[in-house]
């Protein structure tokens, strides 16, 4: 699950705006172009990787539904977040200079952002509704 950066464009004929990831807009593109986007998108929300949806459809035949699948994806996202956070603090520790009694000589770096903090990590909690949209 990722946030897909996109533009908003305006129709010169009717003046309406749409996003470049809106499924209605993507349907107007040549198939060879539209298929290059590796995400299934909604008009304004996050993009869901195509392979993840294919996996969900396969698991449904084994009685694993959207809620269970969303829970597993959320666990994987949190694990990846935790690994990135630990790596961030390890890099700070490796580059920080200490004086002879162990005090850091450099100012402390900012803390790693929270999982769902907008503008930084932007972690997205997957819900069953997102998978069925």
Any overview of this molecule?
The strands form two sheets. Strands 1-2 form a two-stranded antiparallel sheet. A two-stranded antiparallel sheet has the order 3-4. The protein contains five helices and four strands, in the order ββααββααα. By secondary structure, the protein is mostly helical. The chain starts with 7 loop residues before the first strand and ends with a helix.
Characteristics:
133 residues, two-stranded antiparallel ribbon, two-stranded antiparallel sheet, 5 helices, 4 strands
Number of helices: 5
**Could you spell the SSE succession in H and E letters?**
EEHHEEHHH
Ends apart, CA distance between termini = 13 Å
User: What Rg is obtained from the alpha carbons, in whole angstroms?
Assistant: 21 Å
Q: Count of DSSP E strands?
A: 4
General shape: flat
How would you classify the helix and strand content by structural class?
Answer: mainly alpha
Q: Biggest sheet: strands side by side, in what order?
A: 1-2
Oligomer: single chain
Note the main sheet: 2 strands, antiparallel
Which blocks of ≥5 consecutive residues have pLDDT under 50? none
Fraction of residues in β-strands:
5-15%
**Percent of residues in helical segments?**
40-55%
Mean pLDDT: 78
